[in-house]
Amino acid sequence: MIYHLAAVVSSAAEADLALGMRVNFDATRLLLEGCATRGLNGTRLVMASSVAAYGGDLPETLSDMTALVPQNSYGTQKAMSELLINDYSRRGLVDGCVLRLPTIIVRPGRPNAAASSFASSILREPLNGETAICPVPTELEMFVMSPRRVVAALIQGAEVPAADFGLSRCFMLPGITVSVAEMLQALKDIAGQQALDLVRHEPDARIAAIVGSWPARFDSRKASALGFAGDADLAEIIHAYQEECVPS
């Protein structure tokens, strides 16, 4: 059993193409070659891909088979890795499973170089009494999932019978669609106006362009049929963070 979670995140991969290619694509190719040369054809390899693999002129609601036309280098590197894993699995060189992750919120810890990092920050920091910056328009919609649900999905990815995947080993996990405005309203509803007042709006065109290229609505029936579960709503996601990460 192999979990491949290593990556240079979105903004960093966009800022440094060579670094993104080495970590996000070349490392995946070398990992697959290592599996093939060592005869690990029956080994389940679960890789975390991303909603960033999609982009361009898209329909209102996407399916797992919507063509991948990413509009950033991170998404391109993930899409290339997906194709390799699918092909190595087709050839029987590895038993791959690629989980396209929604934006994961509310992540514990501190902000990182991911373009989507603000989506956790504008909830996490105010819940902890700290200020946060919102760099995107509040009407922006995102497809999101909680850390709790994504951990369960990674475990489930190890257990799906290979025959159940069909022709593609790559599919989107069942997230929920929310706008930034809805995130901020949920913050106010749960933690009060004093928490909402800790969020400052400072537009960043670079971040808005990256995150704005990601689709926000998916038909995730394949994931559901394979036993993957999503969050009920945004309040459930925030309450899960509070239960697990906010000191009582």
How would you classify the helix and strand content by structural class? alpha/beta
Count of beta strands: 9
Relative helix content: 40-55%
Question: Biggest β-sheet, characterized?
Answer: 4 strands, parallel
Q: What's the CATH class, please?
A: Alpha Beta
Count of separate structural domains: 1
Q: Give helix and strand order, one letter per element, not per position.
A: EHHEHEEHEEHEEHHEHHH
In short:
With 248 residues, the protein is α/β, with parallel strands linked by helices.
Structure description:
With 248 residues, this protein is an alpha/beta fold. It has a single domain (2-245), classed as NAD(P)-binding Rossmann-like Domain (Rossmann fold), CATH 3.40.50.720. 44% of the residues lie in helices and 15% in strands. It contains ten helices and nine strands. The protein has helices at residues 10-15, 17-37, 73-90, 117-127, 147-157, 180-191, 193-196, 205-212, 221-225, 234-245; strands at residues 2-4, 44-50, 95-101, 103-104, 132-134, 141-145, 170-172, 176-179, 199-201. The strands form three sheets. A four-stranded parallel beta sheet has the order 1-2-3-7, with helices on both faces. Helix 2 (17-37) packs parallel to helix 3. The protein is globular. The termini are far apart. The model has no long low-confidence stretch (mean pLDDT 94).
